[in-house]
Amino acid sequence: MVFRYSILSILRSKAKTALFTLLLFTLTLALSLGVSVWASVAQFLNECDEYYTTIGMIEYMGTSHPDDLIYDEAMANALSTFDPSFIQQDESTLFWNAPTRSLGYVDGFWRTDDYVPGRMLSVLVVGNVGYSEKNRVYSGIVMNTIYSLKSENDTIILIDEDFGSFEPDRYYLVFGEVFYGSSPLLHLRRANFDNAISSAQGIEVPHMLDITADAKTGQFYTIPENSIFLQVADTLRVVNNSLLVSGTEDLFSLLPFHQQELYLIDGRAFTEEEYNNGSPVIILSELVSNRLGVYVGDTIDLSLAVSDYPGIYNSYWVSDGFTSQSKFKIVGITNTVNDKSWYAFVPKTKDLPASKFPIGYTVGQAIVQNEDAAEFYNRVEPTLSDRFHLTIYDQGYSTVAIPYQTILIVAKIVTLVCLLLELAVLILFGFLFVYRQRETSETMQMLGAGKKRVIGHFLFSAGIIAFFSTMTGAIAAFLLHDRIMALVVKAADHYALIDARFSNGNLTTSRVLEFSPALKLPLFLSIGGVVFLLALSACLVFVLRTFLRIKPTRPKTKSPKKIGKTSRLNGGSLKYAILSIIRGGARSFIVPLLAVAIVIFFGQLSSTVLRYQEQLDTIYNNSTIQGYFTDINGKKTGNQVLSAYDITNLYNTGQVNSLSISIDEPYYFLGIKRWANGREQNLTPLFVPDNHFVYESLQETIQRGADLTATNNINTAPEFFYSNQVNINFMDGYDESVLEVPYQNENSFTCILPTSLMKKHEINLGDTVRFAINDVFFDPTYDERVFVHYDLLVIGSYEKQGAEDTIYVPLSLFTDTGLIWGKGQSAANSPTGIKTADFTLSQEEKDQLQATTFQSANFNLTDARMLSDFKNYLTDYGFSQVHKVGSVRQFIVLKDAEFNAAVASVKQQILYINTLYPFLYFLVGTIALVVSYLIVVSRKKEFATMRGLGSTRANSFFSFFFEQGILIFFGTAFGLMIWYILFDAVTIPHRILIAGFLICYFIGCTISIRIMNNANVLTILGDRD
Questions:
Q1: In the chain, pLDDT over 90 holds for what percent of residues?
Q2: Architecture of domain 121-239 in CATH?
Q3: What is the pTM of this model?
Q4: What's the mean pLDDT in 586-598?
Q5: H helix count then E strand count, the chain
Q6: Domain-by-domain residue ranges, the chain?
Q7: Mean pLDDT for the chain overall
Q8: Backbone torsion region of residue 200, taken as left when φ is above 0, otherwise alpha when ψ lies between -120 and 50, otherwise beta
Q9: In whole angstroms, how far apart are CA 678 and each of 80, 674, 766, 768?
Q10: 752, 714 in Cβ contact below 8 A?
C-alpha cells in the first residue's frame, strides 16, 4: 500500500519530480567529480612528496669553483666562523649531511684520467744523453721507468736545455714532468715536487742524480736503496692512483646521486643499520670494479691516509704510510662518470679517518621538505656570509607540484560550493516534497494511518527519486573520471605559475612522475550514498515537522484603534512609496542594511584584488633579475667560449642592460717600463726563440701563467662574481669607470694589479709595466718576430681573493667595444640597454664579432615584467639551458628563482580569488534577486488591498518599485559614505559590483511585482504560503 501510493505521488507531480531528479543528478555528478579531482590530486601530491627529494646545497663560491678536489684557504678561514646549526634547526630541515673526505688506496687500481694531480710527473733513469746544438735540447734513452704514466723503457726522450748538465757516457736518475710538444717524442722538463709532508720534514727533491756504476761491477748504473727519488716514485704511485673516499650519512642526498649523475647499476645502497653502525661497506664505480676485478659481495683492502696538511694530495708521504687499513665489503657499484670515476662511498663514522681540511667547495646538503623549499631558501640564503651560497635542487618537484597544488585548492573551492548547493537543493527537496504536502500528512493521520506509515510514505517516494538521481550521478561521474583527469593534466599546464626556463631555480635534473590516478567505483558510489542519506535526512526532518501542530488560540478582544490623521502627499505612486517607508518601521531598515553590508562586502573583495595587484606591481618594480653565461652544469661563470656576435644580438634586443664582459689572456711579466717618478728603463720585447723546442716551452710557460683580464666591470668579473665587495685602491683621478672607456682611448692602456704582484715586483701606483701575451707579430724595429706586449699604467690595486695574480684592464684594450655599445660610446652599465635607432653592423663588423670570443658575460633585465618575453627570445634564438642543449651551445642562467617564487605566491592568491569570487558574486546576485522578491511578496495583502480598491496595475507597480528603489539607493549611498570615510577611495571594480547588485535587486523587484500584478486578487489572498 505504501509503495503504491508513493509511486502514485511521484507520478502526480511529474514536473517537480523531473526537476529534482535532474538537479540531484547534476549536483551529485558535479560533487562526485569535484571529490574525485580533490582525492586524485591530493593522492598525486603525496606520491610526489615521496618520489621527489629536495636538497639545499651549501657551497663556498671560491675563485676556482667548481673544482671538487681543491683546497681553498679562503674557504677554510670562512668555515671557521660558519655554524650549520641554524640550518639544522630550521623548521623545514629534515636532515643535514656534511660528508667527510679522505684519500684512499687499493693495491692494483690505476688511473689514467686527466684529473690525476701530477699525472705527468715522472721518475726515470736516462742514459746515452746527447746535446743537439741545432735544436738546443738534450736527447736520451729511457733506461728504466721507475714511475711514469706516459714514459716507457727503451724510448727516446727530449730533455729541456735548462734541466741540467748531462754527459753522454753517464746514467742519471731524473725527476721532472714529461709532455708532448710538436713532435711525437716525449719531452722532459723541470718540475717541483709539491708535498707538504715531505717539505715539513725538510726533504728536498733534486732534479737529477748521477747513478753511473763502477765498470768493475758489470752494471751500467746503480739506484741507491734509500734514494729520495724512489720515495717520490712510491708516493706518486699511491697519490696518482688514489681513490677519493667520501663518508656520508645519506648517500642519495649527495649531489651526484641526487641529480642521478651517479646511480647504482648493481647491488644496493647502504642500509639504516650500516649507517648507524658505521659498517665497513663500500660502493665503487664500475671502472674501479673492473680494474680491480672485484664485484658486489667481494672484499677489498682499503687504505686511508690523512695528514695535518691541507690538500687531498698532501695526505700521503711514503715514509709516513697510511692512517688506517681495513677490509671493506662491496655492496654496490655505480656507473662510471669521467670526473668521478675514482670516487668511493662509505658510511660516515667517527672512527673513519677524514681530512680536517675542506676538499672541494661543498659545505653540506640539507634535505628539506619539498613544499617548503622556497621558504627555506628565503630564510637561509640572506643569513649566509660572503661567498657562501645556497642552491635548491628539487628534482623538478616545484615544476610538477605547484600547478597541482593550485588545482587542488581550486578543486576544494568548487567541491565546497557544490556541496553547499547540494545541501540547499536537498533542503528545498525536503521542503517541497514533504512539508508542502503537510495536508496529506494530516489527512493520512485522520484516516488512521500511523506516523510510521506517514514517514514511510514520504521517505519512500522521496527516496526513489533521490536514490535514482544520486546513484546515476555517481556512476556517470565514474565513467567521466578519466576524461576529467585528462583535462586536469591540461589544466596543470595552464596553472604553471613559474616559467622555469633558464632559471637558477631549475638547475636540477628533473625526474618525471606521471599523473595517473586510480580511483575505483566504490568511492563514487559512497559519495552518492552519502548524498542519498542526506536527502532522506532532510525529508525526515520535514516529515517530523508536519507532526508539530500548533493549536489555534482565541484572539484577545481589543478595543478599536484610534484612527490617526491621514497624511496628505501629492505624487501618487511616489506618495505611497514614501508613506510606506515611513510607516514600515523596522521593515524599512532591512533593505538599507542589506545594501550597506553588500557595499562593504564588495569593497573588501575589490580591495583584496587591488592589494594583491599592488603587491605584484611592487615585486615587478623592485626586482632586478641578473643573467649570466655558464657551462652545461650551471657551475662556471668564467672560462667560457662565448660568441661576441650572439652577445651583441642579445644586447640589441633592448631587454638587457648592465652588460658586463670579460676576455682573458695569459700574460708574461717583462718588467717596469717607467716608474711613477719619471725614471725609465729600456725593456726589449720578448723575442720568439729560433729554436722550436724552446719556443714551445716558452709558449707553454705563458699559457700556464695568470690572466690579463679585459672587462668593463670588475665587480662582476668571474673572480668577484659571488663576492659582496671588491677592495680597490685607485690613484687620484681614476675610478672603476676607466674599465669602460671607448675603443682606441688613451685610457685603454691602464691596469689594476693585485697587491701581491705589486709587492713581488716592487711596483707602485703610477708605474708603467710591460706584459707580454701568447701572440706574435713581426716587429720591423727589431726585424724579428716578437710576442705582443702592452705597456700599462698602474692606476689601481686590489686584494686578490684567489690564488692567481689576475690583472684587470679596460675591455676596449682587447676588443672594439663600439661594435656592441656604439662607436665612441662608453662600455658603461647603460640604464636602458638600447642603442641609437640608426646603429647597424656592416658585414665586416659582423665578421669581426663572429671571430671574437668572450670568456664571461652577465647582464640585468631592463624590466622584470619582460621576463617571459625575454625567455621566449632566448628560446627562439637557440640559447641553451643548464642540462638542456639548444642550437646555440651557450648556456644562460637567469637568477630569477626568488622573484618567481614571490610572483607565483601572489599570482596563486589572485588565481584563488578569480576562482572563488565569481561564486561569491553569483551568490550576492542571487541573494539580491531572492531578497527583493521575498520582500515584495511578503507585502501581498497590501498589494491585494490596493488592487481591490481600484488602483491601476501601473500605479501599484510603481508604488512598490519606487519604495524599494528609495530604500536600496539610500542604503547604497550610506554604505559608500561609510566606505569612503574609512578607506578614502571607491575603486572602479567596486562601483561595477555595486551596479551589478542594484541591477539584480531591481530585476527581482520587477519580477515579483509583475507576478503579483498579473495574478487575481482572490488568488493572492488565498495563497497561504
A1: 51
A2: Beta Barrel (2.40)
A3: 0.80
A4: 78
A5: 27, 30
A6: 2-51+403-546, 54-110+241-393, 121-239, 573-615+903-1022, 626-894
A7: 85
A8: alpha
A9: 46, 6, 9, 10
A10: yes
